[in-house]
Amino acid sequence: MPTHVPGPRIAIVGGGIGGLAAAAFLNRSGLRATVYEQAPALGEVGAGLVVAPNAVRLLRRLGAMERLLRRAVPLDWGWEFRRWADGRVLSVEKLSGECERLYGERTYVVHRADLLDTVKSAVPGDRIRLGARCTSIEERPHGLRLRFADGSRAEADVVIGADGVHSVVRSTLAEPTPPAYSGICAFRTIVPADDAPDFALRPAQTLWLGPGRHFVHYPINGGQAVNVVAFAPAGDYTDESWSATATVEEFHAEFAGWDARVTDLIAAGGVPGRWALLDRAPLRHWSRGRVTLLGDAAHPMFPFFAQGAAQSIEDAAVLARCLAASADDPEQALKRYEVLRIARTTCLQQISHDRRDMNHLPDGPEQQARDAALAGADPLVGNGWIYGYDAEEVPLS
Ligand SMILES: Cc1cc2nc3c(=O)[nH]c(=O)nc-3n(C[C@H](O)[C@H](O)[C@H](O)COP(=O)(O)OP(=O)(O)OC[C@H]3O[C@@H](n4cnc5c(N)ncnc54)[C@H](O)[C@@H]3O)c2cc1C
Questions:
Q1: Distance, CA 85 to ligand 1 centroid (Å)?
Q2: Is residue 4 situated within a structural domain?
Q3: Is the CB of 53 under 6 A from ligand 1?
Q4: CATH code for position 47
Q5: pLDDT of residue 216
Q6: Does residue 164 line the site of ligand 1, with CB under 6 A?
């Protein structure tokens, strides 16, 4: 149990993966933080996530690995790219052994609810307030005042906005603009292992690339299910919610003519979810005075490098270190945190954006050049700057 030192009163708005990770790292640093989450109960909706070594090493230091390993699947087979029409393998990157040798950790795939539960296990229960939807933050002579939808309020010295892509806290720091629609939507479904072909139960993340679309699957829930997520044009669809659904026919129609292993997986899943991906340009600053942002509130990114949640966990670790090092000067700590994080997360936002076009090339010379490049690529080594980053080793000055 860390000993808490007298320090700033820290309020975290949002109890998603990023907000809870911030509470966990602050607690580990001996600083007290309270999480205010709008939902009446904690529990991630949604589907699967890839947890790469840059996030795994931080979860291990939180003492949360045992929890993660209960349900996570190590991605030992690795990443496999295939062609949409015939399943021809474009490239395979074996991760087993190699990932640990290079980065000291494996890569896992897990349901979001299991990752949230893992992070939550490192936060004392009395530090989380549920059913607390923050509506505004006001600067007061001796601190900050948070107001909530139920009329209650709280006082803090530091506010961390971990309240996702529609962040209320962000709108106190930057021009309150709504995010744009990206023109892409994600279909997702979960196939029980009993209904899934052995092919999809391999510990592999398989990515099928086709014109205007791509289709991804990997096992989750300790191998008891297969997570399917597929990206396609959104048309005029703009619903951005984990609970919005499509029909199996609509999902099928987007992937008509694809390899039967793709269409069979669509048929084996239940009612698919459908989610319009939002787009935001990177912010140039995300700390002002004693207020800062973290995770999707600061830098929402397309999920094509599978790094959104991982970056929010990295943010949390760096922010806790900055606040612990300058507990008597939180403004300075928040500025330092922003300087340490913004270039890396902006770069990930941009390359995730560019990956959309690369993954969705129509058949032709550019697609052939991409496929040839994929065959020769070694993303495990090439993306070492992502997976090798240790948020607790980055020098603070
Ligand atoms: C299809 C898809 C696939 C993805 N795959 C991956 C992957 O493989 N790997 C990966 O690392 N990332 C992935 N991501 C990205 C990842 O899901 C997000 O980056 C991550 O969940 C962001 O966490 P967060 O805590 O910043 O925000 P959120 O998860 O959005 O959490 C915000 C929290 O704040 C709460 N909240 C909001 N407003 C208020 C308020 N006013 N008051 C109080 N509480 C509030 C919300 O209820 C929520 O609990 C994927 C995303 C998508 C859409």
A1: 33
A2: no
A3: no
A4: 3.50.50.60
A5: 98
A6: yes
Whether residue 182 contacts residue 302, with contact meaning beta carbons closer than 8 Å, is answered with yes
Q: Quote the tokens at residue 294.
A: 């973290």
- Rounded to two decimals, the pTM is 0.96
φ, ψ of residue 311 to 5 degrees: the values are: -70, -30
Q: Backbone phi, then psi, for 225, in 5-degree steps?
A: -155, 165
Within-domain flag for 334? yes
Residue type for position 241: S
pLDDT less than 70: residues of the chain? 1-6, 44
The predicted structure's pLDDT at residue 311: 98
Q: Which residues contact 193 (CB under 8 A, 6 or more apart)?
A: 201, 219, 223, 224, 225, 226
Q: Which domain holds residue 15?
A: 10-76+106-178+282-357
Quote the CA–CA distance of 343 and 61 in Å, as a whole number.
24
* Residue 186, strand partner residues: 231, 275
Nearest residue by C-alpha to atom 19 in ligand 1: 308
Q: How high is the pLDDT of residue 177?
A: 80
* Contact (Cβ atoms closer than 8 angstroms) between residue 345 and residue 315: yes
Exposure string (b/e) for 272-311, b if CB count within 10 Å is 16 or more? bbbbbbbbbebbeebbbebbbbbbbbbbbbbbbbbbbbbb
pLDDT of residue 308: 97
Q: Are 154 and 187 in contact (CB under 8 A)?
A: no
DSSP string, 45-65: -S-EEEE-HHHHHHHHHTT-H
User: SS3 helix, strand, coil % of the chain, rounded to 5?
Assistant: 35, 25, 35
Just list the catalytic residues: 218
